[in-house]
Design brief:
The protein has 436 residues and is an alpha/beta fold. It has 2 domains: 120 residues, Immunoglobulin-like (Sandwich), CATH 2.60.40; 294 residues, Glycosidases (TIM Barrel). Helix 6 packs parallel to helix 7 and helix 7 packs across helix 8. The chain is globular.
Length: 436
Amino acid sequence: MRRGARAALLAACLCLGWAAAQGGVGVDATVALGRVGPYVYGVNYGPLGALPVELFDAAAAAGITFVRFPGGAVGDERELRPFDLDMLMRVSRLLGAEPSVQVRLRGGTPEAAAELVRFVNVERGYGVRHWYIGNEPSLYDDYDVATLNREWRAIAEAMLAVDPEIVLMGPEPHQWTGLESSTPRDRDGVEWVEGFLAANGDLVDVVAVHRYPFPRVVGGPGTTAADLRANAAEWTHLVSRLRDLAIAATGRDDLRFAVTEANSHWSATAYGEATNDSRMSAVWWADVLGKLIVDGAYAVGYFDLVSSDARGSWGLFSQSGPRPSYYVYRLYGRFGDELVAATADAEHVSAYAALRDDGALTVMLTNLRDDAVELPFAVTPSDYLPTAAWLLDAEHDASPVPVPLGPDGTLALPGRSATLIELHPARARGGSSEEE
């Protein structure tokens, strides 16, 4: 979370104490926490996951704002072809999203990276701003932080010589948590982000990491709903931990922060109660994404846009249609851009709130519990009245539903659900904005 926003949120929590004291949800639209990051509704997309034509309309409606290409290890396994890059631009335009490109680190050269920037931004004139060098170097047996730093810098300088306006993102280690017990280190015990920033903190613009919490052990027991429920708390201050580390390592206060690959599982498991394609995982992601947004992420990249069942259940889309995680983006498509204070004082229930340009107050509520809950709900200013709601749960695909507020102000949330409630000031209320 931004440092100014931390103080604002603390003040808000005091103001909302009446709601918390009752074990409920409180929202204060007068306490501003900053803008939603411009690229938090991002996805990974690559040549292994072609989007079927019949899904184009659904993809365009998802509200995706950022595309990381090619996503995963493929960018370090082979050179990108002109066709690949042309397809990236077509897909990005279809989605209405900002494209970004990874150049090769392992097996790559400064000359090849510079040529790719020249081809994309000079010859093709695509004007791609965001670039990465390599993917998860922390997984390479023959790399340590010193090797990464040396090769990354040479490539970065060659790319900037071609286009000094590009935005460099890195170092993107796998499984970064910022927690002493779990964050990856190289063979000499050097923490990947801290060690990278000590050498290249002057060139990088966006400090980026990856995180997939499951499976914890290859071949271990399948992930359960309880596992996802317990894991969600880990993400609460992940961006803040990354920010604090970066400021300490570089002294810079102008860096931005991203989680450019994330999902519940890195493995290709499917059809389980908590695998990537499950409804529970979708609700978990709605909660995690809310935590990253409120904590000040600049960009977030869900992995990935589309994947066949044979390749893995990561994608928002299979080859035949949307998976449950797709509907998380349909909910957040109604979320505002100006964050305001929200608190939830009930176990495994979260609340995130924002104002939209049309004056609506939007509240995202997630309930990771198996059971439904009823909670007191209070809003400041008190003249905000609910006008519409949309629900993602076992029976609803971000569908419009009656506003789940009783006459006494009690909020009802189904088990394993994400709900988006829209409110308007009574003086401006023009009726429900329900669509679809």
